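Researcher: Final request for today, and then I'll write up notes for the group meeting. The sequence and the SMILES for magnesium ion follow.
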Amino acid sequence: MSKIIFNDVHKSFDGGLQVLNGVSLSINEEESHIILGQSGCGKSVLLKCLLGIIKIDSGEILVDKISINDEKHSKEYLKKFSILFQGNALFDSMTIIENVIFGANQINKNKSECRKIAEEKLLAVGLERRVFDSYPAEISGGMQKRAALARAIAIEPEILLFDEPTSGLDPITGGVICNLLKDTLKSLKVTALTITHDIKVAEFLSDRVSVLNKGNIVWTGHTQDMETCGNEFVENFHRASNAISNKQR
Ligand SMILES: Nc1ncnc2c1ncn2[C@@H]1O[C@H](COP(=O)(O)OP(=O)(O)O)[C@@H](O)[C@H]1O
Ligand SMILES: [Mg+2]
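Model: Predicted protein-magnesium ion complex:
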């Protein structure tokens, strides 16, 4: 069953080009779907449209058949989501555990329950108790990413959104975080939507991938079929990405 539906979504900015030019896409319940595209192609804009942060010009976006434009159900709509932002977006002035408690606070639980949930989630993402009272600046980028993930799952979302989950991390830490995201998705039974320009992330984390180019989804399928899918842009993107990552090795 479809969890998220984009139907002919258009978005342009004043004086700018058409960023989304009729995006149609259906994401299944409990699938891990990746939107892959070059930087600047509109991935973050698409995510912001899904969250209602940016208003679409036309078309519709539905989650469990509820429209983003349905004001009466907007609270119910937004409660389904949790997002792991690019760059983590932890609160600098809060300790690691306070950051996660802040997430847990968003579901109606009392103070001691929130603390218990926060501890549980921090341990689940592999952080040790000794860093719970540290501030974000005192721990590594990889640990910050773990803390941000703990905060994201502390609200027990139905849909997890990952915005460029490995950007800003070195390749080894990026690989570790990808593994962690995969394990997390397996244990949680959530629907996941990840946006990335990194084909390795897509290969590792996706059930299906959709490629965004020039404002449209030009292909949806399994990463192993990209190379021979018949779409010139997708095949070139696949070839170029792999050429780069082979060089890095
Ligand atoms: N609020 C905005 N106002 C004007 N242009 C924007 C805005 N947000 C994004 N854009 C433009 O939309 C395009 C897609 O951006 P974005 O979705 O951030 O790309 P990416 O695929 O790298 O996430 C870019 O050309 C960007 O400059
Ligand atoms: Mg982006």
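Model: Residues 4 and 63 are 5 Å apart (CA to CA). The two ends are 40 Å apart (CA to CA).
Researcher: Thanks, that's everything.
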